[in-house]
Records
---
Amino acid sequence: MWDFTFLNTFKDQLLQGFFMTLGVSIVALILSFFFGVVIAGLRMSRFWLFKTFSYYYIEFFRNTPLFILVCFFYYGNLFGLQSKFWIGTIPLALYTSAYIAEIVKAGIDSVPTGQFEAAKAYGLTYFQTMIFIVLPQAFRYILPALGSQFINLVKNSSILALIAGGDLLYFTEVISSEAAFLPVYVTTTLLYLLITVPLSRGVNFLERYFSLKPKSR
Amino acid sequence: MFDYNYDFSFVFQPSTLRALWAGLLVTLNVAFWSIVFSFILGAFLGLLRFTKLRFFSRLATIYIETIRNLPLLMIILFVYFYIPNIGFLRLSIGSSVILSMTIFTSALVAEIVRSGLNSVPAGQMEAALAQGMTYTQALRLVVIPQSFRNIIPPLVSQFVSLIKDTTLGVAISLPELLHNAQQLYNIKFAAQIPLLLTVTLIYVVINYTLSLLGRHLERRLQG
């Protein structure tokens, strides 16, 4: 039952899947963070058009299943994307960016208005205030939520398996039909944990590092 | 993007509407039972992790931390393909998805419950114990009721996620909404984008309503 010989036979596929998952996760993480911050900025702007657009953007992507977004790109051939890497990454980035936008907005809201006023009194421009005063403080507040969103992103990258996208879960399914079932899934579990556990540990570390409380231990 | 005509009228044909309706019922059915079971199991696990029962708390922690870091789709595939191998248990596709979603969501619900319980100031527990209540009484009468305020809003958004995730049942041909839409546009290709848009709309309406409800509850509870 505990036959792990597949580790040798299917080593290449497993590694390929692992790096596909890792690659999609990293690219989607960067894109979603970027979009998320931009959308949060629009959400907080004074212009009606920006505010409305970003509101519907967030609500649309937060309330639509990720797989439907993938269907639009894959089966619907929207924008004629061919590479499965991007068919997986773009919907994933859009989907996650809506969550990140909400988190970033909540973080900025959490910074006391006195900070804005004080910065203004010192003669800082709006962008200087944001970059040097507000965002660093908001960052500390949003780190935990951001971290769990990034872990969700890694998990959600498995959506690629549904379109034969060559990620870790896809190869798991392929290999498990030809090798011992349980060991294959145990291996995949460990490989996913290999990405997500360091990620959550890293976020915990940053959280403690930036914490205002006296460092414990 | 505009290389063929979209057939919107196909969506409104009686046979299409019937298939979509049947799919919606499956989606709602699976989502409902998954919510019920994952709430029960999750609340139990969260309480276990919160309590001072060293061994069980440790066990709950291992379960929660492992499941939380795995993709739901992997659990769905595992449960569906592995359970028949054990032999004595036969699951329909629907119950297989419900079981997978319960395993997955209960871990997330457990974390929500635990952090809700942690958000109640420790003084409340101490005061209750000082009043001569037993530990269970203090939990049941003092701590748990106060934790609801911090549990219900994230719980609602977790259940919105769950409803969205029922689409992953497509992987094992659960005849839910998206699956039925796919069956339909496999026959009629021109209706593909219109059907996908329709399904999106249905999901957005359901989930947006729930999200609004969640936000309403949040405001009420904070007030």
---
Amino acid sequence: MEFDFAAEQPKFLMLMYGLIAFVVVVGGLLLLLDVVPAWFARRREAQLIAASASGAPMPGRRKQREGLFALFFLLPTLLLLTVGLVVPAIRTTLLSFMDDGSNNWVGLRNYGWMFSEGSIVRVLINTLIWVILVPLVATAFGLIYAVLVDKARLEAIAKSLIFLPMAISFVGATIIWKFVYAYRGDGQEQIGLLNQIVVGLGGEPKQWLLESPLNTFLLIVIMIWIQAGFAMVVLSAAIKAIPADIVEAARLDGVTSWQMFWQITMPGIRPALVVVVVTLSIATLKVFDIVRTATNGNYDTSVIANEMYNQAFRYGKNGQGSALAVFLFVLVIPIVIYQIRNLRQQREG
Amino acid sequence: MAFARSRQALAIAGVLGLALGATACGTGNDKKSSGKASSPECAAYEKYQGHDGKKVTIYSSIRDIEADRLAQSWKQFEDCTGIKIDHEGSGEFEAQIGVRVDGGNAPDLAFIPQPGLLKRFADAGKLKPVGADTKALAEQNFTPDWLKYSTVDGKLYGVPLGSNVKSYVWYSPKTFKEKGWTVPTTWDELIALSDKIAASGTKPWCAGIESGDATGWPATDWIEDVMLRTQTPEVYDQWTTHGIPFNDPKVADAVNKAGTILKNEKYVNGGFGGVKSIATTSFQEAGTPITTGKCALHRQASFYANQWPKGTKVAEDGDVFAFYFPAIDPAKGKPVLGAGEFVSAFADRPEVQAVQTYLASGEYVNSRAKIGDWLSANKKLDINNVPNPVDKLSVQILQDPKTVFRFDGSDLMPAAVGAGTFWKGMVDWINGKDTATVLQGIESSWPK
């Protein structure tokens, strides 16, 4: 079909409006953030000048005004948090105790369903496998890589190679990996890398994504491929931040590389390590795109986020979907608490 | 310093404001009020007039080129009546329509492809029954078979729009001619032909049920089509309404019958591999081995005509064409499985009803059919206005008095089954699970 610019004009106009609206809103906010504090600063300056000129005692900062000032900046955040987080969280929790159409209270029935229905128990087990493997393997891989390439030649290039997958969206990455796992019948030309290797070694092509539980691990590989770069970059920065004098002192004391790693590097990067593991754990608990794109949760590969979406939005089972959402929320909370406490300790220490 | 910065920001904001103002002016008057309403080609739209300047929003799953064709099909209506139709298509229609309705942001009209979903909204009191004019026109233009799918508690909540016929087997007339095969007209002939092709070293059937988040649906169509052939239409209705359990022996029988083709390693999966490759082959590419001679038969709906590789001639004497999926006992009539979408209203403003009535009319279906790749069960549809040969055949089948039409069963069942466990169950079934376990699983998921 020919591309008719005139016919597409409304779409372009829409696009332009979108861009303009974006610039206006962001520009407006920036302006506000710039003008308001500047105005206060000038006022205070004028007060100080006036005070020093008249020889009167310096006017102290009034606590009350400062409180108002803080409120002014907190208000938008509080408002958005309430509307976007607190209210939905409460509503979802309430919905999880109600039936499919959210009309009657059913007590804990949806939670009972979650732990008794075979396919859902499978979903919970899958999520558990994900949340154990992805943070551990991705972090370990990132750490080993970061240590190995540290101060090596072409370090920047080596690091960007591992970091590149981070720039690909989950859906895009999954589509790429679906090609890796693709299957064509025995005797036909294989289009999947993995099957081509298997055939090259004299084996028979396999339907990788159909075989449970192997398929869950193959999907986990995708997540690790994406996230190892993140772990590597953060940990590499932490390694470089270890004070050089400590490293030098250790060298003078004659440590082996092994001792160096466990006695110097590891304690030095512990806070960064915790951040990486926690971030990856939360990201893994929420994983949705990879499973939905690769198998749509078929062949026993579903995870909580995917099942939650299916139940609530596709099957019209609001209660069961909400119960899964609440369960996911409960799983994330301890990780978040741990992270907050850790941050606090660091600040105090 | 701070002073200079804030000045700069002010200047930026000012320029932005000016730009916004300028573009706003540029579009203020692009809707010209033409004096078309009284011109002769508008005579047919007289009964819909009197809503000049009103807007009607439509939400559907129709996107891209199909959506452009829709817009083209009602352009004259818009020009003549002054009603602006604002159509939005979404690939996530089934999931999003519920969100929009619950959120108080329902469209005026929706094209709902699943009677099950339509019933859910009607039961919840969200849908408006059609107006008297629309109802009269719908009863005139559609068979009761069709209207019963949008009737809930005796009230009509939707008018059929587009339709498709699913009881087709695609084949290559060219290959058939070369090999001396003939188009089978009974089930036995179909199996005999399959055996003959299998003996010649080619796997006769190809199939694929991968379809993103709807994976499994082509297999449910298979089961439904076979169910209509091994059982009476009445049993089929009992099955889709849970009058008989999902794991009834009659259902198991149909599934196993479908299995004699779909799970037969000698028959499938031409061009792709073994039985299990059906699960991972996308429905879009499933039939393409027919064009390369690696497979001979592919059961899929009329809309598969749009999936062939570019340059494939779809005609009775062309590269590919379809024949009617034969009945097992022709004496019982001609069972036809099909589907379509229903125009349902969430608002009952007069202009919304006018659009709904118009979409049920003969003028509309003929206007849409002329643009191509579309058909309807609307009796006013003139077969000469349907350009595509497969669509022509479908119209013939739909208008044939011997035809016993039944709607796609998975669209009639509650979404948790029809768009959930039935799909997933079929994927497991293809992937090796036995019939009894699969049907038992689906039965236990039926909402109580």
